[in-house]
Amino acid sequence: MPGRQLAYAFASLTLLGVMCPAVGATARPNVLIVSLDTLRADAITAMPTLQGLARRGIDFTHALSAAPWTVPSHAALFTGRHPLKLSCKPNKLDIMLGVPNVMTMLDTAGYEVSVMTEMGVLTEDEGYAAGTTHFWTGDRGDAIPALKQWRRRKPQAPWLLVVHTQGAHAPYAPVDIETPARLAELWPPGWTNHWPKIYWEVFRGQLALDPVEARWLRARYRAAAVQTDRELRRVLQLVEPWRENTVVIVTSDHGEELGEYGRWVKHGHNLHDVLLHVPLVVAGPDIVRGEWSPIVSLLDVAPTVLELVGVETPAELDGASLLPILRGKVSKPRRVVSAGVQGNLGTQRISFPNGRVVMSASRCAASMPRAPAAVREGALRRQRGGGAATREGRRPIRPVPARPRPRATSAPAG
Q1: Domain residue ranges of the chain, discontinuous segments joined by +
Q2: pTM over 0.90
């Protein structure tokens, strides 16, 4: 066993030693963070666009989320702090409100910050508009139209762009895939035109699935992953004019249970490997190409971005910068990362590819200093100033009014 561990530690990094073209020493890179909600790590096999991006940069093949649900996971992603340090109730929607994060810190550093998110989970009320020049929220599929609006505005570099899509999230809306006939073959009798109702029965555990139904549900999730990959392709196409000086980070907040532990179309309730193991791909200028197989955490994304753009990283962050790995300098592999769920701290010791998980509970000790309550409430009122999103029918894409911010550098013509 020790021999295998030693071999794992030294053979875990496969880098080609190929560097992307360097940019000018004085140019600060743009940063694109794409969060593909509910995307399991194994879904990459159905996603040629994400695979192609991985070939352009580093594929962190064993990246783990810090939480199995959208709100605490994104809070960890953008703050670099463990959700249970932000709150003893990490599923609270406002867990990130008043906490320094990538958006606010890059805004202070002179970046133009834009956020576009779907399905109204990450909203201005939860602090995601803080520090942004532009903020959009809308329904499933609205991120691409919002991104087109962003491009027409001709954003001024350097910029940070966050795109959050919900294409892979249940109830797995129908999509046009390359093999619709094959998907139709797997459609269980009686499910046609009744999927929304049946979804909730499956989600609540009220409907036991037979093998045919189980195969169909997995195929439907895979079809949603295919659609998500197409959305990712459109995102990359729309930022193509800035490619030479843009670092792209693509990940997911959590995975999905598809029958592995007796649960279907669920997440947020436990710390199983299928919920925590997510894709993480980073590509861009001066980033080597290859795979990094030791465990990393989404907590590492925030300190990586801060170091990448030259912003001082707060000492209290729980994550560690991945920049040495991105630059081709082998870093000491991390064997233990942690994730939180429902107020308990689970220490994850995962041996891939078997995905063995050992969990232990510990007392929550949330100690994150926040802005004073009056300051947070004032910021919240300012964020709400654009008015509430329409709840009837489809919610419109609603940009927060742009703040005038003159820059010396202009973006390529869109």
Answers
A1: 2-386
A2: no
